[in-house]
TrEMBL record:
The keyword Repeat does not apply. It comes from Longicatena caecimuris. The keyword GTP-binding does not apply. PANTHER family: DIFLAVIN FLAVOPROTEIN A 2-RELATED (PTHR32145), FLAVOPROTEIN (PTHR32145:SF20). In the N-terminal section; belongs to the zinc metallo-hydrolase group 3 family. Residues 255-396 form the Flavodoxin-like domain. Its cofactor is Fe cation. Transmembrane segments: none annotated. SUPFAM superfamilies: Flavoproteins (SSF52218), Metallo-hydrolase/oxidoreductase (SSF56281). This is Flavorubredoxin. InterPro entries: Flavodoxin/NO_synth, Flavoprotein-like_sf, Metallo-B-lactamas, NADH_oxidoreductase_modular, ODP_dom, RibonucZ/Hydroxyglut_hydro, Rubredoxin-O_OxRdtase.
């Protein structure tokens, strides 16, 4: 059965939701599911903006057929050729053989790489090109690395609609609600939106900044991303988040404590740290055991907070492997500009602290490491409890300076 929503008079959401996929890109957990958005414009010509993941192709095809209501499909605009959006192109070609695919040169190259027979069915566009489909005039704007090199966004100058590809998207299934003002985004969606952005597009902050600059020149009334809600108001909220995330600036002054503990002693130390911070009035604290928190959540929270405390036991003379994996993800996603406190533990050759500092100094950018650190031998005791006090003071002092 078709399941569509009207965006504006002649534009329909024809995408779908997937609650069965456990891991997006086979790596990121999506307990709230995910939506794959596609939009169909009914003008003098009919124009489909992107397709969907293979998993919901059948639903998608029913939706397209219903909205077309007997008309042929004239154009398929592909803003992003990653398979979660491009996988159903061949099915569209089979059902609508007269369709012309509009996309960038790199995107069309990717279609061939993925084995799609699109010869003689494509029209290449580049930055600033425009096309009139009747009442609607669409301008194509390149958006390289948001999130693949071939990506573009399309802007409908007639109604002020930005088809923004992966930009401004989110994990989470829509489940009937399409627009940002039909959900409580700040309560129910922002954590998934941040986790989506930081893990999927986080590495490409400068490219996102370039796109934001281009978008600032457009008179936008709707933002139609490929995942998550369509935005039709409150753009300032969303743009502010994107601006901060893509400049690697924290959203909030607070402390994220990520700890790796084998027998509970490092965990006990970070509980003491958290209690002392709270006692001093700093209650914006988030505490995570890296061993039982998926790294995509750790990354998302690391982008959010101004201060990070890394507390790790030493393992085989190195950083505890799960903590090391978290650090590697931070580096891969270009995270920077954080103030970091270090807590080291080890029973017979503590090394994790010096190795974590070396990693932050040598492998990452603009990470400010606090001088006060906690060096534990097996467990926190009366001899080094004052190091926790010093770390607390150091964190609070650095917040005053910021
Ligand atoms: Fe949702 Fe980069 O694909």
């Amino acid at each position: 059965m078709y399941c569509v929503r009207k965006v504006v008079d002649d534009l329909y959401w024809v995408g779908g939701n997937d609650h069965r996929l456990a891991l997006f890109e086979n790596i990121h957990p999506i307990p709230r599911g995910v939506s794959y958005n596609s939009y169909l414009l009914l003008d003098e010509k009919t124009v489909l903006f992107d397709t969907v993941d293979w998993s919901i192709c059948r639903q998608f095809l029913e939706n397209v057929e219903h909205v077309l209501d007997g008309r042929d499909l004239d154009y398929l605009v592909i803003n992003h050729m990653e398979p979660d959006h491009g996988a159903s192109i061949e099915e569209i070609l089979l059902r609508y053989p007269n369709v012309t695919i509009i996309s960038t040169e790199k995107s069309i190259m990717l279609m061939h790489q993925f084995g799609f027979d699109v010869d003689d069915k494509t029209m290449t566009v580049k930055e600033g090109d425009s096309f009139r489909f009747g009442k609607h005039n669409i301008v194509f704007v390149e958006a390289p690395m948001v999130h693949w090199p071939e990506a573009m966004v399309s802007f409908d100058t007639t109604d002020g609609i930005l088809f923004s590809a992966d930009a401004f998207g989110s994990f989470g299934a829509l489940d009937g609600k399409l627009f940002n003002d039909e959900v409580n985004f700040d309560r129910d969606w922002i954590d998934d939106a941040r986790r989506y952005y930081t893990n999927i597009v986080g590495k490409y902050g400068p490219h996102v900044q370039a796109l934001l600059k281009k978008a600032s020149t457009l008179d936008i009334h709707y933002i139609c991303p490929l995942h998550g809600p369509v935005w039709r108001n409150d753009f300032g909220y969303l743009l502010d988040k994107y601006d901060k995330w893509s400049r690697y600036e924290p959203e909030t002054c607070g402390v994220m404590i990520a700890y790796a503990s084998m027998y509970g002693n490092t965990e006990s130390a970070v509980q003491v740290l958290a209690a002392k911070l709270a006692e001093k009035g700093m209650t914006n604290i988030a505490l995570y055991d890296v061993s039982n928190t998926h790294v995509s959540y750790l990354i998302s929270e690391t982008f959010k907070y101004s201060h990070i405390v890394l507390a790790s036991v030493t393992y085989n003379l190195g950083i505890y492997p799960v903590m090391h994996d978290y650090l590697m993800h931070m580096k891969a996603l270009n995270l920077q500009k954080r103030t970091v406190g270090i807590i080291e533990n080890g029973s017979w050759a503590p090394k994790s602290g010096s190795l974590m500092k070396e990693f932050l100094d040598e492998e990452m950018k603009q990470m400010s490491i606090l001088n006060s650190e906690v060096n534990m031998i097996s467990a926190l005791n009366d001899n080094n409890a004052n190091e926790v006090d010093n770390l607390v003071e150091s964190i609070l002092d650095s917040m005053k300076e910021a």
